[in-house]
């Protein structure tokens, strides 16, 4: 389905009704959430400039959050699940919108990006994406199809959009806000894969401590928990949803 925001179309993927609204990460699309949508229901957004959504001017997590806020307010109230850059957007969104709950998945209070990664994306896009995908899954994961799926999804995203996403991640930093006592007006769950090298467990432990949140560490999973350990993640999300009723 599509929703119009400021005269431009935003695409949403949905298979059945549900409590969840999913926000993907850098260079991805709503397709990464297919195993959650099938089992848990709800909506997943193609962020502006990604997938089937039209182009918007976005330069920060807050810019993305403003668009997502418009979409959510048209649809209802949800538990928002944000992955990686989507987690940064979800944090910005939680300052602006009335949410049923908030799930910060494989993310952090800041998302500093290695300058060599940004340089690689500019100078050798496909080669760097291939390396990036290697870091996104745990070493033990044998799901070659999922690795190929993620690689093709990111390469299929425009190069300038992927670079901008990682620049937005690099700028994102709410640590001062949390140190000053920032809290959200909803229950918060933090979730992360035990083997995540992109947003390590300590990032999630910091969020847990600052937000008085629950923390679920999903064993033997890397950054792409929604693919690598989807059954375990779905169970955690379902239990969180039930705890809010």
Short description:
This protein is of the alpha/beta class.
Number of beta-strand segments: 8
Order of helices and strands: EEEHEHEHEHHHHHEHEHH
Going by CATH, what is the homologous superfamily? Answer: Alpha/Beta hydrolase fold, catalytic domain
The N- to C-terminal Cα distance equals 27 Å
What's the alpha carbon Rg, rounded to whole Å?
16 Å
How much beta, percentage-wise?
A: 15-25%
Total helical segments: 11
**Strand order, sheet with most strands:** 1-2-4-3-5-6-7-8
CATH architecture label name: 3-Layer(aba) Sandwich
CATH topology name, in short, is Rossmann fold
Shape: globular
Largest sheet: 8 strands, mixed
Number of domains: 1
CATH class: Alpha Beta
Low-confidence parts, pLDDT < 50 over ≥5 residues? none
Query: What structural class results from the helix and strand content?
Result: alpha/beta
What portion of residues is helical?
Answer: 40-55%
Mean pLDDT: 97
Organism: Ferroglobus placidus (strain DSM 10642 / AEDII12DO)
Protein name: Alpha/beta hydrolase fold protein
InterPro entries: AB_hydrolase_1, AB_hydrolase_fold, AB_hydrolase_sf
Keywords: Hydrolase
